[in-house]
Amino acid sequence: MAFGPWIRSRREEAGISLKEFSRSIDISPAYWSRIERGLELAPKNSLIIAACERLGLATDRAFIEAARLPPDMQGDLELAISVYREFKSRRRT
């Protein structure tokens, strides 16, 4: 599932209207609607974090749905890849 439909599902599960939610994270309802419908790519990192905080969600899952690394890992991409590859190679044996 892409970020938009995923976050929409979480918002609806929380019982928060689109208008209330978008205003609480200081974004226009029209823009957030386009994100949720998959008409826009996942928003900038700060909006993903704000959305997660508003919904009480873990940010890691949101960044996975957005198909990008969490901000704290972006600067350590080489290390993250090497740790992942090491982990995967140990699981195969």
Q: What would you say this structure looks like, in words?
A:
- 69% of the residues lie in helices and 0% in strands.
- It has 93 residues and is an all-alpha fold.
- The protein is elongated and about 50 Å long.
Strand/helix succession = HHHHHHH
- Portion of residues in beta strands equals under 5%
Determine the mean pLDDT: 94
Q: Based on Cα principal axes, name the global outline.
A: elongated
Rounded to the nearest angstrom, the distance between the terminal CA atoms is 31 Å
What is the CATH topology classification name? 434 Repressor (Amino-terminal Domain)
Question: How many β strands by DSSP?
Answer: 0
Instruction: Name the CATH architecture.
Output: Orthogonal Bundle
Count of helical regions: 7
| Poorly predicted runs of 5 or more residues | none
- Going by CATH, the homologous superfamily would be lambda repressor-like DNA-binding domains
Which CATH class is shown?
Answer: Mainly Alpha
Largest sheet at a glance?
A: none
- Our count of domains comes out at 1
Q: Give the helix/strand class.
A: mainly alpha
Helicity level: 55-70%
Radius of gyration: 15 Å
Summarize the structure.
This protein is mostly helical and 93 residues long. The protein has helices at residues 3-13, 18-24, 29-36, 45-55, 59-65, 71-74, 77-92. It has one domain (3-91): 434 Repressor (Amino-terminal Domain), CATH 1.10.260.
